[in-house]
Amino acid sequence: MTSSADARIVVEEGTATVAVSVLAPVDGRWRLAASEAAPAAVGADALIAELVRTARAADPDLARDLPRPARALDLPRIVSRGAPLPGAAIVAPSARQHTALAAAARTAGLAVAGPADAPDLLGAVGAALRPDVGVVVAGTGSKPTSDERGIADELLAALRSIAARRSDIRFVVTGPLGARMTTPDVRDRTTTVVDPAEGDGGVGLRDALLEVALPPDHTRRGLVGGVRELAFLLELRVEVLEIGHTAGMRAIAWPAGEGATSTDAAVAVVADGALVPADPPDELVDAIAGWSPVALDRVRLRDRLVEAYESPWGDLDGESAILTLAAARAAVERVAAATPDLDALPAADLLVAAGGAWAEAPASAVALALVDVLRRPGAMQLGLDHARLLGPLGLVPDPDERRALVAGAIDDIVLPLGTAITPRGMRASRGSAGRLRLAVDGGMSVELALEAGGVHLADLPPGATGSAWLTSKEQFDLGVRARGFEIPVSGGLGGLIVDLREVPLKLPSRPDRRREQLAAWQRPLWPDADR
Amino acid sequence: MSDLQAADGLDLVVARRLVEAAPLVRFPLTPGDRAIVLDGEEVGAGTTLARRYRDVRMETFARPEGSLRASPSAGGWWPGTEQARGRGQRRRGTPAGEILYDVGDRWHVVVGDHEETLDSPADGIVEDVRPGAHVAVRMTGSGVPGMAAVGGPSRGRLVTFPADADLRTSALDVGLAGAIAVVGARVDAETLTRCRATGIRGVVVAHLSDKERRDFLGSEARQRAGYHGIAPFAVLILDGAVRRSIASPVRSLLGAMDGREVAIVADPPMLLFDPAGVEQPEVPADLVRIHSGPAAGREGTWLGQAGVRRFRAGVRLRAGLVRLDDGSEVAVPLADLERYV
Lengths: 531, 341
Description:
The structure holds 2 protein chains of 2 kinds. Chain A is α/β, with parallel strands linked by helices.
């Protein structure tokens, strides 16, 4: 039974939409009682009242345990906010250093403002004075060149000038220059990274920038906490891939420490990874068109994308739903391209899609979108943070309460999409590329002949587990090479997806054929797409 | 939120403000521009807020002998010194400009050419002056918010064209010089360029295709790069990039302002006006407008929630029931609707 006195309202206030959920204790476990999303301008309170009203009307048992809509506003809330991150101004002594600092800033979710080259201190100071810029990234490598040393005094003077004119700006300074930020007012606002971009590809600087840029209640900070809890509780490598209105994010967490008593994580927030940027360049429009089974010329597509940025909560059905998933695929591509250091880590066992980009599409279509883009030989489970709980729950300050909430509601937090198996190098031999045998625990067994280059689906409902045997006459790659593999699988709304397409995916170059091919792959997983 | 709204779900429809009173408007500056107003200063329409420079560069020179302070304040304005001779020594002049920073005894000053004035488009009180960043003015009038604005600020008398009529170049003549035109339907970059050439100060449109916006911005940049400055011109986009007509409450309000002086500003995108003597239309509480989707721009009467419905491509969305202006009743995704308050 639930108790309204113990229920929690979970609110994720995004830049485009607000998501509200009711978590209630049921028979000693936290369960998701109801969830709903609406345009951000509607606000959480109106949505909470409506959500509780709907839940009470739908389930008389639940109605006894939930408060009246007006009183629901008084329930304890767990809130995360997804405000856009500030921009960054780069103050660098050389073009080489500018490139390194800007790259780190972009993977910390900071859009780089101002000149694209260095040293242009006038342009850099001008950028730092823009109201959308909140962080100045400056400095040299740990061993500055003679040219860089020659301009250090001027760099420092420019930073002092910015500090004097912007009391609200933060500084992240790399190399020896950090030690010279000694003015008390400036020093208090400065984070120093001694060895910035050498050896770790800028990851140390990225982490420092994330720490500075992400407010304590930011959803992306919560997603890191949430994915770590999932990794700990499931004892799996878990990756969360978030595509939002203002940026994209990737966080991978895995059990660590003696006896897996803790977790480790690698995180990147990609400023260019938003579903649709404010002013999409032609290359980006073309990239989205490349994933779209809908025929639209560049002018009309650009208008649709501009509308999608300005009113991201609207026009979510029909052709727009398909275009949204095309834009999401392109965004995932950009996020993956910006984070090769995360690709170099061992692959995740569970991939969780998060963010507004996936909100309204059918779950099976989301699964296909993920396997279309994130292609590496292997198998992984797919999930969806459908109620947008992971971010807020990851911010719960009390670690015991956080663990109890995530552990109790874990089946509700991650909507299972299924398991994707992506072998590489399974080629046709006498008609078929190989065979799949799926044995569901305590149930039936099915066999399928696998066609080279195809996407094969096997019914495996949510909650079901089993084993899949994949065999071929030739060796193929599933992380390691062999002629056959037994893979533990779990079910989901998309079932079991065995994807024999190329890794990476090759699409026809002719636009009409490409669209036909994309539509053909999509049809079994999104049968209503054409209606 | 009224009880009626909460009961029938109208509070789940995005509320859009028809008019915003006393908006804070920001006019951007870049290093080298010179603000000539102070915090708290009252300004009227046409008061110069700042002098802006198109081509700026940084000049470095030794601390001038006439300077009172060894270290100048960043963002301060250095008036410059003239070249002089005396007692056999020659003193070099220094240019006027904004002090960016100093290193030791050397000053780095931003100097600009091709001065343009930035005039306040309406009455207000200066609330914040940040050299190199912005001048923010609290307007004494009101504003009609838009989705985006291009160019500006600009001021002129409002002229409304018939609803849903495309603005064609043949309809433009010098009689409209100094006007801000409200265009019911489609407008393209060529027409906007022609508007500017005939002395029109601005255009208010419901939508502007991104291609037309880019083409116009390209034309604007080319004009601005010329030696002679160009007259202020701005485009206010009320809704977005996809075709739709101006919402009826906005059109009624603009109609009530016809012939009056108004201004377009970009941050926030807005049409400023003096509310004295302007009768604001009564907007029915149950009037809703379809903002997005295939029926964008249509209006109707809110009938209540329609629950979760299956829409095109099998997408399930919470919907509202709306009686459209032609009498038909349709279920529309709640997120596609908006209402004016």
